[in-house]
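Researcher: I'd like a structural prediction for the single chain below. Treat it as a standalone chain; there are no partners to consider.
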Amino acid sequence: MAQLSSQLRRFMDDKTWLENRRIMEILHQIKTRARQCMDNPPPGDLMTMDETALSLMLPMERPMYQPPLQAAIAEISLEMGEEDADAELLFAQIVVDKGRLKQVLAKALQQQSQISLGELLRQEPLQHGLAELIIWLQLAGEQTRCVIDESRQEHVCWSVADGLGRQVQLPYVLFVR
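Model: Treating it as a single chain, here is the predicted structure.
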């Protein structure tokens, strides 16, 4: 048993010595290459940093809450005006289903690898006019794989409830799968 344990100890010592020797060789190679890079650095910038300092905003540096100023109402006698607008329009709200628009986009990107906003709106016309177009642009801003090209322009047309047509010119928006 003593001979077996001494042989095992010698074997482990030899293995440890060989591993340490290999580590020293690797470190020597790294030092040699580092010296070569110091003497003859590669051309161009190796690394750039956007900012060299941190911008910290500590909680106690923030200004304290100040309630908004109360509006001063002048003592003026109110006169009755004439009603010439439909008040029902003030209460009519349009709700655009953002989830449905995401599904339309996903379905279109399953069929094609990329699609522009104009092409997408020709396939799936605007139902709620400008409000829906703004949601489409918001989706484009949220997508990481969306290209917005300011140099190219795209025309988008739609019709509103009163039968009039509307059109807008906006940057070229390309959704990518």
